[in-house]
Amino acid sequence: MIDNIKISVVIPSYNREKTIKKCLESVINQTYPPYEIIVVDDGSSDNTIQKIKELNYSKVRILQQNHKGAQSARNYGIKEAKGDYIAFLDSDDEWLLNKLEKQVPYLEAGKNIVVYCDCYEVNRRKGQVRAKITKGSNGNVYKEMLMNTGPMFQGILCSRKSLLDIGLLDENVPSHQEWDTAIRLSRNNKFVHISEPLFKWNWHNGETISKDTVRGVKGHAYIVEKYKLEILKYYGLQGIDRQYESLLIESFQNERIEIMKYFFKWAIIDTLIDIRKFLGRKTFEEKF
C-alpha cells in the first residue's frame, strides 16, 4: 500500500545555518510525509545544529561526525535509517511540497525501482530561476548511465536495500557522486524518470560539501577510469574518445594543468580509432 511506504530522508550538512531551516521545512511540509528526517552534520563550526533544534520537529534526527565529506555523511544516514526507502536532499536545497507524493506511486512496481525527477535551477546571486528539464531515461539504463551524468541526489528515491546491495556510496569520488551512484544502482534496478521539476537546486556563495567546478574535472576523470572497461564494452574506443575529449574541454575551461594529460589520452585513443579504420578499409580493399 502506498500509505505504508516508510521513507527516510537523508540530508548531509556542513555549515548551513543560513539555509538548513528552509531545507527542512520543505521536507516537514511534504504532502506525503516522510517517516523520518536524518540530518548528518559533517563537522559544522557554525550554528547549524542549533538552527535544526529550534525547529523542534519530532521526526528530525541529528547525527554528528567529524568532517569527512558528503558521501560519508550520506552513508552514515543510510546505515542509521529506519525506513525502507531513502530520499536525499542537500542542506542548501529545497523540495517542492508535492515531491514525495509525485514519486511514491511508482514504487508500487517493486523494490528494485529508482525514481528520479528534474529540478528548478536557482541562481540567487543573479536572481534567476529556470526549469532544468532533462531527457531522462527509463527502464534498464545502465548503458546510458555510463556515458551521461545521472540524476541528482536531491531527486532520487530508492529502496534502502538497493543502496546496501551496492555496498553504499563510494566515498572516494571527488565529485559527480550522484553519477557514480546512478551507474551502480542501474546495474540491478529499473529507473523511472519524472519529467517535472520537483526540487530547487540553489546556487549561491558560501561553503559547500560537493559543489566545486575544479573538483568536477577530477570527479569526471575518476568515473571514466573506474568504468572505462565497461565503456569500452558497450561503446568501443569511440566511447572512451568521447569521454577524454569532454575532459579535455572541461580542463581547458577550468584552466587545469590536467589539460595536457587528457590531451595525450584523447590523442592516443583518436589515433587508435584512425588506425583501426585504416586497417578495416585496407582489409576491405584486399577482399575486393
Automatic annotation (TrEMBL):
Xref: InterPro entries: Glyco_trans_2-like, Nucleotide-diphossugar_trans
Recite the UniProt keywords alphabetically: Transferase
Q: Which CDD domains match?
A: Glyco_tranf_GTA_type (cd00761)
Q: Which residues form the Glycosyltransferase 2-like domain?
A: 8-134
Return one GO MF term.
hexosyltransferase activity
One short Pfam name that applies is Glycos_transf_2
Q: What is this protein called?
A: Glycosyltransferase
